[in-house]
Design brief:
By secondary structure, the chain is an alpha/beta fold. The protein has two domains: 9-188 and 229-249, 3-Layer(aba) Sandwich (Rossmann fold), CATH 3.40.50; 191-226, no CATH class. The chain has helices spanning 18-28, 41-53, 72-81, 105-133, 154-170, 193-206, 210-219, 229-239; strands spanning 9-13, 33-38, 62-66, 87-90, 136-141, 180-187, 251-254. Strands 3-2-1-4-5-6-7 form a seven-stranded parallel beta sheet, sandwiched between helices. Strand 5, helix 5 and strand 6 (180-187) form a beta-alpha-beta unit. Helix 1 (18-28) crosses helix 8 (229-239) and helix 4 packs parallel to helix 5. The longest helix is centred in the middle third of the chain and has 29 residues, at 105-133. The protein is globular. The two termini are 29 Å apart. Belongs to the short-chain dehydrogenases/reductases (SDR) family.
């Protein structure tokens, strides 16, 4: 299927590895110009080189911006590299797990800044230009915890739910009639560095082996496996496509069937 986005330009956050990289990979394979951003310069440059080899269109560009997009200075660097984006994929690392009794005000402010306010700032800067040009796709990578909250991820539950509520309103505003869609993509358990470190920490706390814990986690998922970044990226690319023009304001859950609810 031709997704109809060849020649468009995308901004992808957290794209040096994991799910952000998977999204950038899917987009460059569709002929999209991509600006990738992450804090680690070396890992980001390595990702840029891999993405260049995956381009379906030799004239497309891949630009790397090593910056913290959760800061005003980081966002300034992103828009200095390229101003007008047709596609924006917001993605920032989730806040740490823990007991809500241990989190002070600063912990909450940091979570809200990274996982709610930063995506809102990126939407605010880009959405009107998209509407003027008659095409725009914004995909926010959030978490399956928006649908099924996880007790030790209270910071993420709260901040990402705030973003979800905001998107539910703005996606249905006047921009919906001007070719702009905003959707949230909710990952469940995907084989990323974050999941690996989480499994290691959980195994150590429980006094059991990582392999046994991994097997138990996979067995609890109806698909009997963890997801991978490439298939996640493919879902993201579809939401950015011309075929997905009638999909907006939605929370798209990719979790191998782990969420047990009907709605």
């Amino acid at each position: 299927m031709d997704l109809g986005i060849n020649g468009k330009t995308a901004l992808v956050g957290g794209a040096s590895k994991g799910l952000g990289y998977g999204c950038a990979l899917a987009l460059v394979r569709e002929g999209v110009n991509v600006v990738i951003v992450a804090r680690g310069a070396d890992a980001l440059e390595a990702a840029r080189e891999r993405l260049l080899r995956e381009r379906s269109r030799s004239g497309s560009f891949v630009t790397a911006v090593a910056a913290d997009i959760t800061t005003p200075q980081g966002r300034d660097a992103v828009f200095a590299a390229h101003r007008d984006y047709d596609i924006v994929v917001t993605n920032a690392g989730g806040p740490p797990p823990g007991d809500f009794r241990d989190w002070d005000r600063q912990a909450w402010l940091s979570a809200v800044e990274a996982n709610m306010l930063t995506p809102i700032e990126l939407i605010k800067v880009t959405v009107d230009g998209m509407a003027e040009r008659g095409f725009g796709r914004i995909v926010n990578i959030t978490s399956s915890s928006v649908k099924a909250p996880i007790d030790i991820l209270g910071l993420s539950n709260g901040a990402r739910s705030g973003l979800t509520g905001f998107v539910a309103g703005v996606a249905r505003s006047s921009i919906a009639a001007r070719g702009v869609t905003i959707n949230n993509l909710l990952p469940g358990a995907f084989a990323t560095d974050r999941l690996t470190s989480s499994l290691a920490a959980s195994a150590a706390k429980a006094g059991q082996g990582v392999d046994a814990l991994r097997a138990a986690r996979e067995a609890a998922i109806p698909a009997k496996r963890f997801g991978n970044a490439e298939e996640f990226g493919a879902i993201c690319a579809f939401l950015c496509s011309v075929q997905a023009a009638y999909v907006t304001g939605q929370n798209v859950l990719a979790d191998g069937g782990a969420y047990p609810g009907t709605y």
